[in-house]
Amino acid sequence: MNLGMSGKNILITGAGKGMGREMAISAAREGANIAVHFHTSKDKALETVGILRDIGVAVHPFQADISQIDEIQRMKNEIHAQLGHIDYIVNNAGWAQMKSFFQYEPDEWRKEIDICFYGVLNIIHTFMPDMIKNQAGKFINIIGDSARTGDRKLIMSAAARNGTVSFLKSLAREVGESNIQCNTVSLGMVDQGGLGEDLIHKIRKQYPLKRLGNPEDVTGMVLFLLSEQADWITGQVFSVNGGHSMIG
Ligand SMILES: NC(=O)c1ccc[n+]([C@@H]2O[C@H](COP(=O)([O-])OP(=O)(O)OC[C@H]3O[C@@H](n4cnc5c(N)ncnc54)[C@H](OP(=O)(O)O)[C@@H]3O)[C@@H](O)[C@H]2O)c1
Fold first, then answer.
1. Which of 190, 208, 234, 239 has its CA 20 to 30 A from that of 199?
2. Signal peptide: which range, if any (predicted)?
3. Is the pLDDT of residue 248 over 80?
4. Where residue 228 sits, what CATH number does that domain have?
């Protein structure tokens, strides 16, 4: 199937490592040029850039804290100079603390909201006006299913990301006339190493498909939403989660 992504410039946040890197690799294999965003993982981001260069697409690393709009604006200028106009964005960056609400001091909850909620607004406010001018664009936001089901130990990131779901649905209504699609991919637990066997065994019992996800389980959905096959899909939330939650 031709996904129609060849030659598109795609910004993927948090692409130095983890799932962001896998998304970048799979989009590059479809011929897309990649802006590899990182925050602190410079060495990893340079590794990702090396892998993508070997695939043969245009690629550059870009650093920014997505919670700071001035850093996003600086990054946009750098991307324009190095790669040109960004066609599509996957916001995969995120940050969460695992504790219950009453374990937080008030000054500890701001960071999750700044990254997981305001980060999305900062990126869209900076990059989407050009997509509107271009009358084409796609924005995909990666969240966890905790944002839809609630999770007492992920209460703050879940709340911030639930806000982005509502924000993107409203935005999708506004920018649809400019041929821009805004969708959310909501994940169950993805094993990227580092979880002990005992813990994995305990968690996977809760999954109807009896295993945790792996990055390849996620990249298929992201690629599909970036492709021209998804040009008539907007304002939606797709769970990729081994059946862990089934939200109608
Ligand atoms: N793994 C799972 O089971 C799971 C489940 C549900 C949802 N998710 C979500 O899926 C996404 C990818 O997951 P992952 O496990 O691959 O995560 P990860 O390795 O922790 O990656 C998150 C990325 O976010 C970036 N980031 C953090 N704070 C930032 C900031 N202030 N500004 C810019 N970037 C920032 C980090 O960049 P640097 O490394 O460069 O600092 C990091 O690469 C995340 O949004 C995560 O919350 C993951």
1. 239
2. none
3. no
4. 3.40.50.720
